[in-house]
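quick one before i forget lol
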Amino acid sequence: MDKQLKRGMLDVCVLKAIKSEDSYGYRIIKDMKPYVEISESTLYPILRRLEASQLISVYSVEHNGRLRKYYHITQSGLQRIEDFKTEWEEIMTIYEYVTKEDDNE
């Protein structure tokens, strides 16, 4: 798969993982696991990129004597998910065109 396409898809997957409630790194990985495998070394750069793009915000909460970073989706992040859905419809139309059988075959 094209690296840029996969990167964009992973970004949207992470946004989806925190759409319904704020979450932290390990839980995001766990929630995504049934759908896509992602490692910590892949997740944290995505989270930093999403934060820099203002698609998520980050805050810390003390948990068992340590600070745990929580990630919250912003309005821009919610809009990115909606934009992806629209883009995906276009991608599926292209896929159908490319994979359809020729009439002569």
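fyi Residues 3-99 form a domain with the Arc Repressor Mutant, subunit A fold (CATH 1.10.10.10).
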